[in-house]
Structure formats: structure tokens, C-alpha cells
Specification:
Length: 99
């Protein structure tokens, strides 16, 4: 009997047009962001549309993603903005590193 690899899950932040940050989890954050943009996502975006997927963090499984989502939602806006900046810096440095 072989054990399948656990499906990766992600916690993500989406910036709304009014500057607010929405935190959620998904096994495909890009698809989920597209759903938010098309109005099929969270009610959060009814008053201010989704603008950008600004942060994605990989988690070992759905349970870990849910725990991380809860921790991020408990942060204040300045701490969430620091996460966004740190994630952008990591993405830039990874893109600059040689293959």
C-alpha cells in the first residue's frame, strides 16, 4: 500500500481596491484569486474588488494552512503589510538567483 504525497495547501493575501487585505487558503491560490476577481469568491470583495494576489505561503497540508490563516488574520494591518513586503523580497531574490 503506497501513501500518496499530501496535497500542498497555501495561505494567501489578496489586496482589494480600497487597500484592504483579504486572507484565505486554497490548494490553487491563482485559481482562487481569479474566482475572487470574477465575483465568485468571498463576499469580502463585493464592496471593493480584488486587485492583486500579493502574498502566497506554502503549507504542508490543509490543517497547517488553516492554522496559519488564523494566525495571519489575528495580525494587525502593519504586520500583514510586512508579510507582503517580505514575500515580495523573497520572490525578487529567488528570481535574481542563478538557476
Amino acid at each position: 500500500m503506497s501513501l500518496a504525497e499530501p496535497k500542498p495547501w497555501f495561505v494567501y493575501l489578496v489586496r482589494a481596491a480600497n487597500g484592504a487585505l483579504y486572507c484565505g487558503i486554497s490548494d490553487d491560490p491563482q485559481r482562487r484569486f481569479e474566482a475572487h476577481c470574477s465575483g465568485r469568491g468571498a463576499r469580502f470583495f463585493h464592496s471593493s474588488p480584488a486587485q492583486a494576489l500579493v502574498y502566497v505561503e506554502a503549507c504542508a497540508g490543509k490543517g497547517e494552512a488553516l492554522r496559519r490563516e488564523r494566525a495571519i488574520k489575528a495580525l494587525g494591518k502593519p504586520a500583514k503589510e510586512r508579510l507582503v513586503l517580505a514575500g515580495a523580497a523573497l520572490a525578487i531574490s529567488a528570481a535574481d538567483s542563478p538557476p
